[in-house]
Write a structure and sequence with these properties.
Blueprint lengths: L4 E10 L2 E11 L4 E5 L6 H8 L9 E4 L2 E2 L8 H6 L1 E5 L10 H11 L5 H14 L15 H13 L5 E5 L7 H16 L3 E5 L3 H4 L5 E6 L2 E4 H6 L28 H14 L4
Parallel strand pairs: 3-8, 3-9, 6-7, 7-8
Antiparallel strand pairs: 1-2, 1-4, 4-5, 9-10
Helix pairs in contact: 4-5, 5-6
Length: 272
């Protein structure tokens, strides 16, 4: 199966400063993957490379049918139509209603038929449990509902891949769990999800593959688990031969010692 994303031997730079080196990974259809690592280790830089914000100058990279090494500026909007991007701070239009936030994106990405737009808006709002809140303003929504609206916006153009940058960073634990479950359920419908997060508490519930940014490289848990070369070599301990222990003299008489004593007594005994 052809991967949705394929990155080979890629170096990622910000202002000629090397952030990540020798990046190699694939993302297949329907995968749910966590992008983890400490702050400043390159998570956001990787996401920006995937959606065309940072130029790829080394290696090879493909997102769908787009070659990131040959990506031209005029192609970036078309690349982003294949992606859904979810940000930590929601980035909603605060002066427009829920539905109008989605209409803005649809018009910007080429939608024209008003009836089709209306149907699609209702579909994505129902998918994120906001089906009855299209008329509300963003400030009338809770933090979790605002993030659900951001996810609905990401789903508008039926993307092959969703890039989520710390989507639960501003949410309480219960709401975070609900958002994670929503993103995981989306991946089960065939879309791939790559989610940058520090929320290690909830990670074990949904998905199990991680890309970890550490010391300028990306460590893929899938490779570590399945590729023998990635595992530490098992060294068989040498079997040491035991040296024979010296026999300690026993205080108890043995048959041999009794025979020897008898012989000595015979020699010492005077002849008759």
């Amino acid at each position: 199966m052809e991967p949705i994303v394929s990155i080979k031997d890629c170096n990622i730079y910000i202002d000629k400063h090397l952030v990540l080196k020798d990046v190699n990974f694939d993302i297949n259809k329907g995968e749910f993957i966590y992008l983890i690592g400490k702050t400043g280790t390159g998570k956001s830089s990787l996401l920006k490379t995937l959606y065309g914000e940072l130029e790829m100058t080394d290696g090879m990279g493909n997102v769908g049918e787009f070659n990131l090494r040959k990506l031209k500026r005029k192609q970036i909007p078309y690349l982003r139509r294949k992606l859904g991007i979810v940000f930590q701070d929601f980035q909603l239009l605060t002066d427009r209603s829920v539905s109008e936030n989605l209409i803005f994106v649809m018009k910007a990405t080429g939608w024209k038929d008003k009836n089709e737009m209306k149907i699609r808006i209702q579909e994505v709002l129902e998918k994120v449990d906001l089906g009855t809140k299209g008329f509300k303003m963003p400030h009338e929504l809770s933090g979790g509902e605002q993030q659900r609206l951001a996810i609905a916006r990401a789903l508008i153009n039926d993307p092959v891949l969703i890039l989520a940058d710390e989507p639960t960073g501003n949410l309480d634990p219960e709401t975070s769990d609900n958002i994670l479950k929503l993103l995981y359920d989306i991946s089960q419908s065939g879309r791939s999800v790559l989610m940058a997060t520090h929320d290690y508490v909830h990670m074990g519930k949904y998905g199990n593959r991680t890309l970890r940014c550490d010391a300028g490289v990306i460590i893929d848990s899938q490779i570590d688990m399945t590729t023998p070369l990635a595992r530490p070599k098992q060294v068989q301990p040498e079997v040491q031969k035991e040296e024979p222990k010296p026999t300690e003299p026993s205080s108890e008489p043995t048959l041999g010692s009794l025979d020897a004593d008898s012989a000595e007594n015979k020699e010492d005994r005077p002849a008759n």
